[in-house]
Amino acid sequence: MSNNESAAPKSYDHARELTEKALDAFVEGDEKNGTKLVEQAKGVNESAVRDVHEELEEDAASEHDPAKLGQSSSKKNPG
User: pTM for the full model?
Assistant: First the structure.
């Protein structure tokens, strides 16, 4: 039982690492390698891939929140 407990976090971390490498590949325009890395990550731990995806969506939403944009522009132009 302790083997499964220690293996779970390692597989989760490994899958997140693969997913982050996939994102880097996509940013560099390497769709083929990015897709391959995502598929590998899903095979290791699919929930880790979902978690990375959700975090990206949350980050993107917060960056484009009109209220936050207004706050940041008022800080830049105080008067």
Answer: 0.69
